[in-house]
Amino acid sequence: MARSFGPSLAQTTVNTKAGHIVVPRDMDRVEVWLKKFTAEAETGDVHKLTYHVISQNGQEIAVKANFSMVDNPLYGKLVYQTMTMA
């Protein structure tokens, strides 16, 4: 029996466990971009997006994020994200 960890790709939005760290002025843009990426990206596609997050001490930090579409044999299509400071 397969176990499910987290939402399916169709249910994924920016407002996940870490979604609250995206600064409010960037939230709509990031959410629209991520929905488009998850709907249109093919396995192996990598796209970049720059936006701002809020650090633990409340400081805004610009980040560059790489989003990769992968085909996981257990869970199907997944989006992996890595971030670095811009």
From TrEMBL:
This is Uncharacterized protein. It comes from Lactobacillus delbrueckii.
